[in-house]
């Protein structure tokens, strides 16, 4: 276990009081569940979370007081200690985005858990990218032995299970989480067993959210076309509305099913299951309840005729207005081409697709998300804006890796882009052999 943790976190962590703790000592303490808390001292929601998380952490670990340093780090003779209670096998590590060391010190001083040292800025950024953290505060739980994500939305764990009775909060099958009555907007009630044999879209949305309402209008048409084509497909609306009245008003526009608004526990469990960090989000499942894509929103907007339903992920995407938001989810390889040349974009996709497929398969075998997304960008306003923002040359073809969260770019300056060139570029990036340029 310690090998994985040292690869993930480095050799040393620090307590709120500034004392160093060896990462390998977590194994001696019997830590089985690791929480990564992503936050910043300047964020009021992070300050609120820290307070509630400290109480939660203290209750689970059985600490006499959840004050600074409580339980953070092994005591003398930890290796010979009795087998810990299951819930005391939890440790949390704070991963900060602070840019000022004094503010960071003031913030971590009151934390009873551990933190990545302030100087570990590169490692922090790698963690943000690895787990696709898009907003703060975020709290995810990992299996400390394998690194597999157990729960992507720890904030809901704190709210829904304050005593830790469901520890270690591992994911449950969709059929189990969705079990219960579902509604149509005419008041008809159906059992969730009616979903058997169907592809399912789990739609997290709310009436107060303008992008949600825009997507709903498109999704209504997509739903109709898919059903008319004879496909077994159903959508489940999981509301984030602020009142039952708003829910009813919004749901009246939808021809599909919904989790009852009054069933807050089930709505929350679905949010936890899929680690929802923002809306609108459309998760598409196969008939066995396994995720096909988390990018249903992008797929619906890019494929309004639904010819590619159920939208299995493509290794290489053509950059567009609707999927450009994915550039912010982590490092992206972008091959810029001259789209005025017939077939140039398709040839570029064929060039990088084998490399993309190899990377995706390698990380899927480890049950991890690929560390890179792959795009081809043609000549249009979106591409022009991206080139301007990242200060890239006008050359085409141009091979780049863009890391928006790190405000870094990597540019491959060669006369001819071949599969071997692309693969070497990707491998050097993953091995951290490339020198970044600022964006």
Automatic annotation (TrEMBL):
Any GO MF annotation of the entry: thioredoxin-disulfide reductase (NADPH) activity
The keyword Oxidoreductase belongs to this UniProt entry's keyword annotation: yes
EC number: 1.8.1.8
Entry's localization field: Cytoplasm, Cytosol; Nucleus
Residues of the signal peptide: none
Gene Ontology CC terms, in alphabetical order: cytosol; nucleus
Keyword ATP-binding: no
PROSITE patterns linked: THIOREDOXIN_2 (PS51352)
GO biological process, alphabetically ordered: cell differentiation; negative regulation of protein ubiquitination; negative regulation of Wnt signaling pathway; Wnt signaling pathway
Family indicated by similarity: Belongs to the nucleoredoxin family.
Function: Functions as a redox-dependent negative regulator of the Wnt signaling pathway, possibly by preventing ubiquitination of DVL3 by the BCR(KLHL12) complex. May also function as a transcriptional regulator act as a regulator of protein phosphatase 2A (PP2A).
Protein name per its UniProtKB record: Nucleoredoxin
Species name: Castor canadensis (American beaver)
Gene behind the chain: NXN
């Amino acid at each position: 276990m310690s090998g994985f943790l040292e690869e993930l976190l480095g050799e040393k962590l620090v307590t709120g009081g500034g004392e160093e703790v060896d990462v390998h000592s977590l194994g001696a303490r019997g830590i089985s569940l690791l929480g990564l808390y992503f936050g910043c001292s300047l964020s009021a929601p992070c300050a609120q979370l820290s307070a509630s998380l400290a109480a939660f952490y203290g209750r689970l670990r059985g600490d006499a007081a959840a004050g600074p340093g409580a339980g953070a780090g092994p005591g003398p003779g930890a290796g010979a200690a009795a087998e810990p209670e299951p819930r005391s096998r939890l440790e949390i590590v704070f991963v900060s985005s602070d840019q000022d060391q004094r503010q960071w010190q003031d913030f971590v001083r009151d934390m009873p858990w551990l933190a990545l040292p302030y100087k570990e800025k590169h490692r922090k950024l790698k963690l943000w990218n690895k787990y696709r953290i898009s907003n703060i505060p975020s709290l995810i739980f990992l299996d400390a032995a394998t690194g597999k994500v157990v729960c992507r939305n720890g904030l809901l764990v704190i709210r829904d299970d304050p005593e830790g009775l469901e520890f270690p909060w591992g994911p449950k099958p969709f059929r189990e989480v969705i079990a219960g009555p579902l509604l149509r907007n005419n008041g008809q009630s159906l059992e969730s067993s009616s979903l058997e044999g169907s592809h399912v879209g789990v739609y997290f949305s709310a009436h107060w959210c303008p992008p949600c309402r825009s997507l709903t209008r498109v999704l209504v048409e997509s739903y109709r076309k898919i059903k008319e084509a004879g496909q077994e497909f159903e959508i489940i609306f999981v509301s984030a509305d602020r009142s039952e009245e708003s829910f009813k008003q919004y749901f009246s526009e939808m021809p599909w099913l919904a989790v009852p608004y009054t069933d807050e526990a089930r709505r929350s469990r679905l949010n936890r299951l899929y680690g929802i960090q923002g809306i609108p989000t459309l998760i598409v499942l196969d008939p066995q309840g396994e995720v096909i894509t988390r990018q249903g929103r992008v797929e619906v907007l890019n494929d309004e005729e639904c010819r590619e339903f159920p939208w299995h992920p493509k290794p290489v995407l053509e950059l567009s207005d609707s999927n450009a938001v994915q550039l912010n989810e982590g490092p992206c390889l972008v091959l810029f081409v001259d789209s005025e040349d017939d077939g140039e974009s398709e040839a570029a996709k064929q060039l990088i697709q084998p490399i993309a497929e190899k990377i995706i398969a390698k990380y899927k075998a480890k049950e991890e998300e690929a560390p890179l997304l792959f795009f081809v960008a043609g000549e249009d306003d979106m591409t022009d804006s991206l080139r301007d923002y990242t200060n890239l040359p006008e050359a085409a073809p141009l091979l780049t890796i863009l890391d928006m969260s790190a405000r870094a770019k990597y540019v491959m300056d060669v006369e001819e882009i071949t599969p071997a060139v692309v693969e070497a570029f990707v491998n050097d990036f993953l091995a951290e052999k490339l020198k970044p340029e600022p964006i």
